[in-house]
């Protein structure tokens, strides 16, 4: 499986960044028994947010999906760090929780979340199929449009 994930990342033109350090008093991930929980990941690219604002106001659905994909890339960077680069230790992605900074009239949070979900299945294959929540919120840290946390099963 490890080879498959690295191959799929390469085919998608994705180089995982270094796992981001926590921005406050928390850890980037926690393992407990056979579970790996990531902290919420923002759509950072090169250490910066490429877009700011709310879906339905400053951010389009398409850009929201791109932001969700960036969050997913950062989740995979955290997961890779958590398993010391040993992708074979990942049993399955169990759940994504997607927070979407939304204008009060925006009701397509689920479509924004597809940017992350589709990417996870593309890269992880069948073990990337997961349950999900997509929630609209009034604001996120640093005016990010999306934040996503993940729960994985470890082998």
UniProtKB/TrEMBL annotation:
Coiled-coil features, chain-numbered ranges: none
UniProt-listed InterPro entries: Endoribo_LPSP/chorism_mut-like, RutC-like_sf
Gene3D superfamilies documented for this protein: RutC-like
Record domain Endoribonuclease L-PSP/chorismate mutase-like: where: 6-144
A Pfam family recorded for this sequence: YjgF_endoribonc
SUPFAM superfamilies, alphabetized: YjgF-like (SSF55298)
Protein name per the record: Endoribonuclease L-PSP/chorismate mutase-like domain-containing protein
Protein species of origin: Fulvimarina pelagi HTCC2506
């Amino acid at each position: 499986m490890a080879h498959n994930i690295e191959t799929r990342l390469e085919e998608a033109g994705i180089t995982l960044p270094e796992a981001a350090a926590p921005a406050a008093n928390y850890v980037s991930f926690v393992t407990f028994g056979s579970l790996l929980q990531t902290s919420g990941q923002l759509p950072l690219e090169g250490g910066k947010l490429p877009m700011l604002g709310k879906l339905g106001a400053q951010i389009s659905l398409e850009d929201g999906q791109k932001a969700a994909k960036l969050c997913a890339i950062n989740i995979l960077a955290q997961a890779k760090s958590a398993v010391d680069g040993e992708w074979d230790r990942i049993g399955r992605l169990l759940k994504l929780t997607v927070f979407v900074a939304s204008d009060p009239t925006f009701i397509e949070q689920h479509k924004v979340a597809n940017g992350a979900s589709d990417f996870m299945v593309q890269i992880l294959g069948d073990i990337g199929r997961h349950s999900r929540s997509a929630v609209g919120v009034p604001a996120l840290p640093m005016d990010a449009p999306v934040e996503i946390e993940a729960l994985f099963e470890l082998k």
